[in-house]
Write a structure and sequence with these properties.
GO terms for molecular function: iron-sulfur cluster binding; oxidoreductase activity. Helices cover about 5% and strands about 25% of the residues. Strand 1 and strand 2 form a beta hairpin.
Amino acid sequence: MKTASTFRDLDPEGPRVRVRFSGRDLMLREGGNLAAELLAAGVTPFRRTPVSGAPRAPFCMMGACFDCLVEIDGVTRQACLCEVGAGMEIAMPAAGRDGDA
């Protein structure tokens, strides 16, 4: 996971909540778009493809491509269609994690 991001936080002073992505604590903007907030925090990739293990991150940001799939509290969801909430436990989906099918 990289630590720097080319994405800019549009509200750096806004209220934040703690979430975890793959064991890493992050402070994200409460109510913000989860995919956008993860990108601004420098999180990538979000998942790996089940067959080749190729890294994937958000592409369309409108729910059509499914490249932003993550597990949220054990349920696979599209990050671009979710809002950030306090205490979320987020991880790469089990299928394709670490290149495993």
